[in-house]
Amino acid sequence: MSELVTVSGNIMCSFGTAPAPLKVTSQATVMAEGKPVATIQDCQGMANIGPFGMCTSLANPQVAAATAAALGVLTPQPCMPVPAGTWIPTKPKVLIGGKPCLASDCKMMCAYAGNLSITVPGQVKVTAT
After folding, report:
1. Is residue 129 part of a domain?
2. Would 127 be classed as within a structural domain?
3. What is the CATH number of the domain that holds 115?
4. What pTM was computed for the model?
5. Which residue from 41, 57, 80, 93 has the fewest beta carbons nearer than 10 Å?
6. Measuring CA to CA, which residue among 126, 88, 125, 114 is closest to residue 20?
7. Tens digits of per-residue pLDDT, 65-102?
8. Predicted local distance difference test score (pLDDT) of residue 17
9. How far is it, in rounded angstroms, from Cα 12 to Cα 22?
10. By residue range, what is the domain housing residue 88?
């Protein structure tokens, strides 16, 4: 069973060098362990998803240019996340405000060919109050 992703969750890109924290902006009323739960709409670069350290994807024009200038030696450049769409929901019937919740097994693509995945969901247990 997958966990819900909360504001303290971490994301990783397959072409990044470091994880990035998730910021929840799509809703503020549904909580897990006192933290806002994310939905698939929390998918905007820099607003919801921070940089993943350095980008190593040659599909990124900055990396391609730096690598070409270094005569073919891969030259990573600072990551500026460019999500391609929203998170792909794995639990589409679990809704928060009419939007599917973000579960720990959801995935998303970056415009520069990276796969974004949840590394730390932020939720450990759910308690009803």
Report:
1. no
2. no
3. 2.60.200
4. 0.90
5. 93
6. 114
7. 999 999 999 999 999 999 999 999 988 888 998 999 99
8. 98
9. 10
10. 5-122
